[in-house]
Amino acid sequence: MLSVQNIDVAYGPTQILFGVSMEVSNNELFCIMGRNGVGKTTLLNAIMGVLRPTSGQILFEGRDLGKMHPYERVKAGLAYVPQTRGSFPQLTVLESLKVVVDASDRGDKAALDEAVDLFPRLKKLFGRKAGFLSGGEAAQLAIARALVTKPSLLILDEPTEGIQPSIIMEIEDAIANLTRSGMSILLVEQYMEFALRLAGRYLILDAGEVVSAGKMGDLDEAEMRKLVLI
Predict the structure, then answer these.
(1) What gap in Å lies between CA 147 and CA 132, rounded to an integer?
(2) Tens of pLDDT, residues 171-224
(3) Three-class SS of residue 77?
(4) What is the pTM of this model?
(5) Helix (H) or strand (E) holding 117
(6) Could you tell me if 50 and 69 are in contact, meaning their C-beta atoms sit under 8 angstroms apart?
(7) Which listed residue, of 10, 12, 91, 174, carries a Cα 20 to 30 Å from 132's Cα?
């Protein structure tokens, strides 16, 4: 589904990623891990077109993403939930979802209903303005907004960051349900136990380079802690 082929990415004169390659297959959850500042979000920004690689290639379902603007990548089936979660603070939860349906070529009311079914907590908050949600509620809303576009690949950047444990479990259940339904998911995550429970394959970055990759079940947990924990 997604093929990242030997990409270099830089912010101005500063190179952040060095020859990174990875592949996400259909119907799998693939996890990118690593310490803060090693290039995880930079890799996602390159996939979404916010940053352009200085070399290498990114393919999505056989199409060269390098020739596509970010909005065209969304239309092609990519959906990205950033760490900031981004919301429309003056809109209610329901309005925040409907505005995405109205703006999307792929979304519809059925997709909205399906997204909310994954997060029952949101149904009780339809009338609340998004700016007054807790961190966990805002994270659920951000994921639901992405799902409304009916993506082929859902990209999540640190969905558990700063969230209370009870809502982390709700998000984990929702992601597990999505994976069982056949959705492909690319997850950036530092909460190791969360990643271990959900992911089938992984990649670990350090200083902008891939230092470990493979099946999650084959990963030595002690080695993983050395590479991921600060």
Answers:
(1) 22
(2) 999 999 999 999 999 999 888 888 889 999 999 999 999 999 999 988 887 888
(3) coil
(4) 0.92
(5) helix 109-118
(6) no
(7) 174
Residue environment code for 66-86, b if the CB has 16+ CB neighbours within 10 A, otherwise e:
eebeeeebbebbbbbbbbebe
Residue 106's closest CA among 75, 130, 82?
75
List, for residues 12-41, the tens digit of each pLDDT value.
899 999 999 999 999 999 999 998 899 999
Helices 165-180 and 109-118 pack at an angle, to 10 degrees, of 130
What token pair was written down for 128?
Answer: 């609340």
What is residue 55's three-state secondary structure?
strand
Q: How many residues comprise the chain?
A: 230
Number of Cβ within 10 Å of residue 175's Cβ equals: 23
Nearest to 153 by CA among 106, 195, 117: 106
Q: Element (H or E) spanning 154, and its range?
A: strand 153-157
Question: CA separation (Å) from 157 to 13, 26, 185, 189?
Answer: 25, 19, 11, 7
Contact between 17 and 41 under an 8 Å Cβ cutoff? The reply is: no
Report the mean per-residue pLDDT for the chain.
91
With beta carbons less than 8 A apart as the criterion, state whether 188 and 41 touch. yes
Q: Where are the alpha helices (DSSP H) in 155-220?
A: 165-180, 192-198
CA distances 196 to 31, 212, 217, Å, are: 9, 15, 8
